[in-house]
């Protein structure tokens, strides 16, 4: 059983994976996106990652979120918290609530990013506000748990950051050159063998 400590939720990784897939899947329409989600749902993670990667680079927020989850858990791709955070960030910037929630968790724990309760709270505030009815209670409880770790000044900054945030339009991510803030992503996804 995986726990998110005394400040959070309890549940199995499998349940979280199903919840993420279900939260991300409804917007999948016919075509390559639906195919990628079907592959993921069947447990064919490597094939799903292969289908999701070009969609994610094309700016599909749901593909970015699910690919981030796959990197976080090491499903079909090597486990890599930095890549997970990068993909969650792309999706979260576009307003994908599940990615905002999962990015908030990474900031809370310092996995793949520097631990930062203010940024964690910002993303959790946004996720709770944008979540579906069934997700809202879970997201709100974790948002409130993280708030207990913060000073009033930190909470105020996080709330201000959330108020100032607005979703970014989808944008394709090119491999050459990769725009900031993702200069490391091509190396993570396509490492070149060393000459040694």
From TrEMBL:
Does the keyword Signal belong to this entry? yes
The UniProt entry, under InterPro entries, shows: Sel1-like, Sel1_AlgK, TPR-like_helical_dom_sf
Superkingdom of this protein's organism:
Bacteria
Which Pfam families does the record match to this protein? Sel1
Question: What does UniProt give as the signal peptide span?
Answer: 1-30
* Source species: Xanthobacter dioxanivorans
Q: What is this protein called?
A: Sel1 repeat family protein
**Gene3D superfamilies per the record?**
Tetratricopeptide repeat domain
Keywords for this protein? Signal
